[in-house]
Amino acid sequence: MVGPLLGQITGPIASVIADGAYDGEPIYRAVAGHQPDTPAAVIIPPRANAVPSQTAGTTPTQRDQHIWMIQNKGRLGWQKSVGYSRRSLGETAMFRYRTIIGRSLRARTLPAQKTESLVACSVLNRMTRLGMPVSQRIA
């Protein structure tokens, strides 16, 4: 389903971040095929038993590079290097949306649903700005 989902995106994609369940060459191929001129970074943690591809010695894939980075830096070092923590920020935002706004849309037509979602996101962003602490590092 990654291919059809990517097909709905009209603009360029900088990166695709997913959990380990999506680890595999079909996902990497779908993302690369979506915009072949400037391929997006695919940030998916390889499974614990993942092995590099057969072409890893000559032309390593993104997945091969992730496997090597995990072997060299460890899983936490890999997460920090590639920005995998952004995934948890997205999940937190979706959890916040479902908790405060609800799991379903009330509007019936697609244009009204888009408007409802935009208003809900605007409300959440405003609430987040008002309620987030301002932290400063003390030397």
By DSSP (H or I, 4+ residues per run), the number of helices equals 5
> What's the average pLDDT?
89
Strands ordered across the widest β-sheet: 1-2
Gyration radius, in Å: 19 Å
- How many separate domains make up the residues? 2
Residues in helix, %:
40-55%
Model description:
This protein is mostly helical. It folds into 2 domains: 83 residues, no CATH class; 45 residues, no CATH class. Helix content is 54%, strand content 4%. It contains 5 helices and 2 strands. Strands 1-2 form a two-stranded parallel sheet. The relative contact order is 0.09.
List keywords for this structure.
139 residues; mainly alpha; 2 domains; 4% strand
Question: What's the SSE blueprint?
Answer:
Elements lengths: L1 H6 L7 E3 L7 H10 L6 E3 L18 H21 L2 H16 L9 H22 L8
Parallel strand pairs: 1-2
Summarize the structure.
The protein is 54% helix and 4% strand. The protein is mainly alpha-helical and 139 residues long. The longest helix is centred in the C-terminal third of the chain and has 22 residues, at 110-131.
